[in-house]
UniProtKB/TrEMBL annotation:
SMART domains recorded: ANK
Transmembrane intervals: 352-371, 601-619, 639-662, 683-705, 711-729
Keywords from the UniProt entry: ANK repeat, Membrane, Transmembrane, Transmembrane helix
Intervals holding ANK repeats: 52-74
Gene3D superfamilies attached to this UniProt entry: Ankyrin repeat-containing domain
Annotated organism of origin: Juglans regia (English walnut)
One Pfam family here: Ank_2
Name the record gives this protein: PGG domain-containing protein
Organism lineage string: Eukaryota, Viridiplantae, Streptophyta, Embryophyta, Tracheophyta
Residue ranges occupied by any PGG domain in the UniProt entry: 591-702
Recorded superkingdom: Eukaryota
InterPro entries xrefs: Ankyrin_rpt, Ankyrin_rpt-contain_sf, PGG_dom
Amino acid sequence: MSSMDPEMLIKRSLDQQISRDLLKKAMMGQWNEVVEIYKKEAWTHKEKITRSGETALHIAVSDGQKEIVKELIEVIKSQTDDQNHAKEAVSVENKQGNTALHLAASKKEPSMCKSIAEVNSSLVGCRNHEGETPFFLAAFHGKKRAFLCLHQICAKTNQVGYYYSARKDGNTTLHCAINGEHFDLAYQIIHLYPDLANWANKKGLYPLHILAAKPSAFRSGKPLGAIWHRAIYNRIVVDELKPELQPDLEDDIPNNHPRRELTGFVNPFSWKHMFACLVPKPRGTNGTGEGIHDDDELDHYTYPTTVIDINLSREYYSGTHHDHGGIFSRFFKFAYSKTMWIISWSMVITSWFLYIFTSQFMGMLLLPFGIKGYSRRRRMEHAIRSSYYVKQKHTWAVQIMNILLERTTDLYQAGFETWANVGEHGDRINDHESNERSRAEGVSLADQDRETPILTAAKYGVIEMVERILELYPIAIYDVTSVTNKNIVLLAVEKRQIHVYQLLLQKTIPRDSVFGHVDEDGNSALHLAANLPPNTPGMIPGLQMLWEIKWYQFVKDSMPPYFFPLHNKENKTPIEMFTKNHRKLVRSGGKWLSRTSNSSSVVATLIASVAFATATTIPGGLTQDCGTTMYGNQPAFSIFAISSLLAVFFSVASVVMFFTLISSHYEARDFSSNLPKKLLMSLMTLFIGITSLLISFCVAHFFLLQDKQNNEAWVLYAVVVASVIYLTIKNSSVFLNLMRVTFSDVPERLYEDDV
């Protein structure tokens, strides 16, 4: 035995050297050498060469080397006569319990999943230390083609995908697909595994809850932005999702496929593509005039061949319409379609030219100031792309919502207390078993403040879901949270969801029981409106205080006097709560107003001094004969006199008004209208003073060039004034927001990206 020790040490040393070389070549990307080592040394197929316990196959999969993975799999299958060798080689787990198939499921190449799973199909259901299967991870990472590939493998081996669809926390593939906003994948999961719509995780959340907590996935959840974004968005037509029974195992897409042509197709400065973008294709053609008899060949891809489509009558272009009303009816339809066509064209082209002026022309004018404009083509192409994907997400989210509402039958048929749950291995468990498991983890399911999907949707402001649930299940209006006893009205008021509250006001519902409902602490809707939300978007304090007052007053005026209960269980009234909760915000708003007034008063004082000096300086001086102005008979002199006088008047008025704001006493009631209106008037007078001073300067400068290049001078002055106005409007978001909030009776909805 002792005589063998040197040989064993030498062999071990050689094996370690081979293992180090294998790791080095894999890290350096020298995959051909890795394949050669696999061919020569069969023991390396199972060798863990990294600290995290990964083999060379793991590294190749992580690096996305699909061709190398195929070669390594072929080498593994052909090197030994042992039938179990290949299965054991692909079943090696790293320290997280992930096999190579776990990593392949997280990639976008389904061919790697197919190559590995063909060696050992049971790996589809192999769980890592988090209880995740490759089948689950494909959905978690939103890899639709990999998921469909693994689904086919499950079907071939008569294995039910339900058992592989959940992990330890009870989240299923459908939960994860919706949470990641992979709605195309979520649709396929619902189609293949419809029962997952009725499965809840350990927190008692259905997939519908997850969707309700995604306000950005719906049209009501986020503003569309500039006018051209809204114009493009409104003209986009997105195809609805369809089942995809066959996965796309080919990683390379033909160059002439519309999916490849999308980049060039949305080029807005190609007039051919623009026209194709705006006018819909006739139904039954593929855009080139050739007929299509079977849509299945294109169902496979989710990208449409057209991006923007005018809402014309498809029957009229398809040739399948029928004459039911004679020549008058046909003429009316034709005239209506042409009128809508002209209106749509006008909207898009007008928005287009507005965009070109603001981004390109004004960008060129502002180059001397160091402001660089974006590429016109890139900006417009990005606008079309982003609008398309936003519209696609919104359309698919509504489609998923409607399907889930059709399939989620447990909520209102069996009652709110019969929540299902999912075990670690995909088995469904009841509330008692879930409470036992949760209690072992220190949290009882009964202690969680559970809510139905309509309450979650109301809390996040998803109006589409709230309205749809009320249409299907009117009884849902009486849903309350399990612990705090808050209904849909209280949650909408507490979370400042104005659109939801307005929607409920328009509904024919029992107001006494719904709007007069109180929570566990006896708080009414008006009490909750008096609270200051902890997660308010980053508004400036003055605007936020004004918004809070508007919201409180709106809720109070929405119901008759003395409708809401006056005292809660702590014997506090809404106005007492409002004063106490907003005390700190009033101080912050006062400090912001003081700083703004101080800074603006300095500017206004400088403008007033310059304006006064300009007004007392007569262009050209006086004549020696009669002492009259030299240019008094010219219209330009009248413009100079009026503009300089206006500059002095408005700048001095602005200084006085800012001093009034500085010396004001800041209280909560003053933010309702008094202080905001004073600030608006001060800023407005300052802006008018600056504009008048600029006009007087240009007119005075005109007299210096009156004998030469008059036309060019006027163009120069127009450019200067337009540039200043553009810069002012571009950077006047605070002023515009202040004006909008001050003069609106209903406060606007706050979004997460509002500033």
